[in-house]
Write a structure and sequence with these properties.
heterodimer, A: mainly beta, 7-stranded mixed sheet, 4-stranded antiparallel sheet, 11 strands, B: mainly beta, 6-stranded mixed sheet, globular
Chain lengths: 114, 116
């Protein structure tokens, strides 16, 4: 069964460093999402991406964040200059047709900013 | 405004007990979708069910059942004869057609502890 994959599973970085979180969505999916979950809290929407552009972003998704689909398979989230409060689990999700089915979530990348 | 409320922060039950997890949502849309996800200690999000706003039929899947009531804006989840493996955090989520992106709005989750 196809699945969404994310790498790395855990990333440790120093404050101020740039990180890139990588996702490979399911191959025939068209809608892509990033969510964030700070430890012990709820899952929060960051950004959605469709037709090679951002379709919606939340207030959390400020200028420090960017997303890209550099080729036909990867979907990346970049944090330009990490802060301590960026420490969280980041989930990638994809969907072929949101009006017909659920989002498929990856296993997550745990980001720890020291 | 759209919102999902899971008022139960944590529930503890003894194995084989039935347990109901509550979910109340707010939306102005007439077309929307509701979901339940399970998050075990390993951290991944496991999809359990999707329900659209036009389908109020209750659903049963093994020990799991869901009660969708538009009149009270609730989408409650019952586990019958709970097992230790059911211990996890359970999230209810809402997605709306008018958002265009169908982003998910999650509740704060209910931590279920099933004791042997």
């Amino acid at each position: 069964e196809p699945e969404v994959t994310q790498t790395p599973s855990h990333q440790v970085t120093q404050m101020g460093q740039e990180v890139i979180l990588r996702c490979v969505p399911i191959s025939n999916h068209l809608y892509f999402y990033w969510y964030r979950q700070i430890l012990g809290q709820k899952v929060e929407f960051l950004v959605s991406f469709y037709n090679n552009e951002i379709s919606e972003k939340s207030e959390i998704f400020d200028d420090q964040f960017s997303v890209e689909r550099p080729d036909g398979s990867n979907f990346t989230l970049k944090i330009r200059s990490t802060k301590l409060e960026d420490s969280a689990m980041y989930f990638c999700a994809s969907n072929r047709d949101p009006s017909y089915n659920e989002q498929f979530f990856g296993p997550g990348t745990r980001l720890t900013v020291l | 405004a759209q919102k999902v409320t899971q008022a139960q922060t944590e529930i503890s039950v003894v194995e084989k007990e039935d347990v109901t997890l509550d979910c109340v949502y707010e939306t102005r849309d007439t077309t929307y979708y509701l979901f339940w996800y399970k998050q075990p200690p390993s951290g991944e999000l496991v999809f359990l069910i999707r329900r659209n706003s036009f389908d109020e039929q209750n659903e049963i899947s093994g020990r799991y059942s869901w009660n969708f009531q538009k009149s009270t804006s609730s989408f409650n989840f019952t586990i019958t004869a709970s097992q230790v493996v059911d211990s996890a955090v359970y999230f209810c989520a809402l997605s709306q057609a008018t958002s265009g992106t169908y982003k998910y709005i999650f509740g704060t989750g209910t931590r279920l502890k099933v004791l042997a």
